[in-house]
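TICKET: design request
STATUS: open
ATTACHED STRUCTURE:
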């Protein structure tokens, strides 16, 4: 792997991240075209998943693409979908070499895009920056391989792990800089998820605000009985920004009709033995709808069930410099753990100050993946 290949693939990966949260069910791919050491085209998957990154980069490069090298963060597609195969477009443009980070596990592609390029005489290098590409495409890869989206769990708490006082006051434990970062994290995910208890207590909008972004993630509420505020910010915005409600199979038909009339989608999900929405089944339904990345903001029962079932891939914590004591409300509900070795473990991947608070990111320990 040459230094130049690494440099240009790193750029392609950074371009691909621009599409995170906007391209589902397609992956957020980045592409760079280089000729004689000069970048002649670049692109990333566009909102809604099309056009693909390679097509955008080829259009920018034009005739300069002939004899050039294409760096792409995922194997070019080889199947006829809503647009022609990217592998054919690459060959037609006269690209001489393709540097591809990883193979696409989609059975419609799965090595066939690379093989099509080889048969056409295109030089091929696979595996450059593969680890970072797998991390960037984790949601797409999980949906293809395991039938569920990537899950980020966000917890904003006091130093002693409380999310509210004993009386329920929670606004605001963390500062404005941390809250702004949360909005940026929402924007990089396909969907924002909360439990019914959080929806009832806070009536959150769950939209991205203050960043000049027009696109909004799908807002998802898990409420077994559809017991949600029928007036307020969330209800009033149901027809303006996507709102999906995951409910139990025995939820009242009248409740479903009421929320659907407001503009929400109501999706039935099995209920687990504990009486909560079955978290694994819910994620499977979401994957079936095309969702690849979910940003969960609580509450405690939902967060605990996701952790218990091994469904959290990344933890993002915002810790504030105050303590609320034992009477404060904990950030997690009961998990039924008797021993430490039963607890899910995560590895620290980043820590930084965000205003007056500390943000820390944790990745599920590889032995548990």
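STATUS: resolved
RESOLUTION: sequence designed for all positions
ATTACHED SEQUENCE:
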């Amino acid at each position: 792997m040459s230094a130049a290949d690494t440099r240009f693939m790193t750029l392609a990966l950074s371009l691909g991240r621009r599409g995170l949260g906007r391209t589902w069910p397609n992956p957020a791919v980045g592409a760079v075209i280089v000729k004689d050491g000069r970048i002649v085209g670049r692109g990333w998957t566009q909102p809604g998943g099309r056009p693909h990154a390679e097509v955008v980069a080829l259009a920018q490069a034009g005739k300069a693409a002939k004899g050039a090298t294409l760096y792409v963060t995922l194997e070019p597609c080889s199947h006829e979908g809503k647009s022609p195969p990217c592998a054919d477009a690459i060959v037609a443009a006269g690209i001489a070499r393709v540097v591809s980070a990883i193979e696409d596990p989609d059975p419609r592609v799965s090595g066939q895009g690379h093989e099509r390029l080889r048969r056409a005489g295109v030089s091929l290098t696979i595996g450059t920056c593969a680890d970072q590409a797998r991390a960037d495409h984790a949601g797409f890869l999980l949906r293809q391989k395991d039938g569920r989206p990537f899950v980020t769990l966000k917890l904003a708490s006091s130093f002693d792990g409380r999310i509210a006082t004993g009386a329920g006051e929670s606004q605001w434990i963390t500062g404005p800089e941390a809250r702004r970062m949360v909005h940026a994290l929402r924007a990089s995910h396909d969907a924002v998820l909360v439990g019914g208890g959080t929806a009832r207590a806070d009536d959150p909008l769950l939209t991205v605000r203050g960043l000049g972004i027009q696109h909004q993630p799908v807002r998802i509420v898990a409420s077994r009985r559809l017991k949600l505020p029928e007036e307020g910010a969330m209800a009033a915005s149901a027809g303006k920004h996507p709102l999906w409600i995951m409910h139990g199979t025995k939820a009242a038909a009248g409740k479903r009709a009421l929320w659907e009339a407001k503009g929400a989608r109501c999706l039935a999900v099995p209920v687990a033995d504990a009486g909560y929405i079955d978290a694994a089944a819910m994620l499977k339904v979401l994957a079936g709808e095309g969702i690849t990345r979910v940003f969960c903001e609580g509450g405690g029962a939902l967060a605990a069930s996701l952790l218990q079932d091994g469904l959290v891939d990344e933890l993002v914590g915002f810790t504030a410099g105050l303590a609320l004591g034992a009477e404060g409300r904990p950030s997690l509900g009961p998990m039924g753990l008797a021993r430490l070795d039963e607890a899910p473990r995560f590895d620290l991947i980043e820590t930084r100050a965000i205003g007056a608070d500390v943000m820390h990111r944790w990745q599920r320990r590889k032995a548990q993946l």
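CLOSING REMARK: The chain has twelve helices and 16 strands. The radius of gyration is 22 Å.
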